[in-house]
Amino acid sequence: MKFNTKTIHGGQHHDPSTGAVMVPVYQTSTFAQKSPGVHGGYEYSRAANPTRTALEDSLASIENGERGLAFSSGLAATDCVMKLLKPGDEVIAMDDLYGGTYRMFTRIYQDYGIVFHFVDMNDTAKFELLINDKTKLVWVETPTNPLMKLADIAAIAKITKAKNVLFAVDNTFATPYLQRPLDLGADIVMHSATKYLGGHSDVIAGALIVKDAALGEKLHFAQFATGGTLGPQDSYLVLRGIKTLHLRMQRHCENGVKVAQYLENHPKIKTVYYPGLENHPHYDIAKKQMIGGFGGMVSFTFTSGEKAEAIKFLENLRVFTLAESLGGVESLANHPALMTHASIPEPKRKEIGITDDLVRLSVGVEDAEDLIADIEQALL
Ligand SMILES: Cc1ncc(COP(=O)(O)O)c(C=O)c1O
Question: Which residues carry this modification: N6-(pyridoxal phosphate)lysine (predicted)?
């Protein structure tokens, strides 16, 4: 099956009891047993639920994995990966990450004795030097939130495979429509399914997908044992979202390029961060590993460098909504330093480039002309 067909049919079966074309919402916590321990594959919904199974099979299918797991949030999915580690283990992570991921690593797991190194993943020599026998995990987000930095997944996988270190990729921004980390050698794909997979800003959800069955089993055990699973109603919403992922992503990409090009030529704009622009420092990596487009996320700064100008712009928007999150059909705008990335200490934010005049746009699937007209009037 090709990708677009997989978004609709991958891992799906009509409901065996009724023939329902869409999987029903199995809104049940428990399942009747014929005799103690004798059941039809489902016992208790924390362990497994048929609606969640349908979503998990769809996730595995679209990411070219063997096992998918659905979580109550993206952070619950990341947290499950961290449960594979022990005190003293070391993690090498990209130096630009979603603020909540950074917060979990530095304010929860650092206190559990896990050591984190945040590095520029494009300096592969430096990154390789950091690997030692305590290194158990490499964590990468590409493109990153909010600075759209890219990491070369295949190049990193070559190193992690040789050194026998697990390699996880947060594929939230690209989605499998644009990038398939498992095909490029990563071991774990993570998603905030709240974003493009769900696609309609109506659910908080997360996902992990792996190729290796034993790793899938370990992660499932950690999920089952600690409980961060996705409920049946929310599983249904994400599954329904995935069915139009390819259609939405195509329009997100078309609109993303148009908005990025418009901003690039605007005198009030200093830098536009979009992997599809030829002057993006990682454009070559984007062309190599992103298939058929560059997504709908665009960040930019102002020529004035003024925080006040960024805030005025955000207050002036009418079609874009000023809100956290991204990846829904509607366009959203965000001020990372004050909103999504406020949990990163100011000096660290400045060091990595999350300045006070940085704005992040999640370009939706409306008419591009309306989006550009909105940006134009907000910049006046
Ligand atoms: C790239 C990325 N990863 C992970 C997360 C966390 O996901 P959630 O909010 O679903 O817990 C987010 C949320 O914004 C994100 O943007």
Answer: 195
Q: How far is CA 263 from the centre of its chain?
A: 25
Cα(20) to centroid of ligand 1, in Å? 32
Strands 115-119 and 297-302: unpaired
Q: How many CB atoms lie within 10 A of CB 327?
A: 28
Q: What is the pLDDT of residues 173-207, one digit of tens each?
A: 999 999 999 999 999 999 999 999 999 999 999 99
Catalytic residue of the set 52, 67, 95, 98: 98
Structure tokens at 64: 């070219």
The class of domain 246-378 in CATH terms is: alpha beta
**CATH for 3-242 (3.40.640.10, 3.40.50.10260, 3.30.70.1130, 3.30.70.270):** 3.40.640.10
What separation in Å is there between the alpha carbon of 101 and the centre of ligand 1?
8
Residue nearest to atom 12 of ligand 1 (CA): 192
pTM to 2 decimal places: 0.97
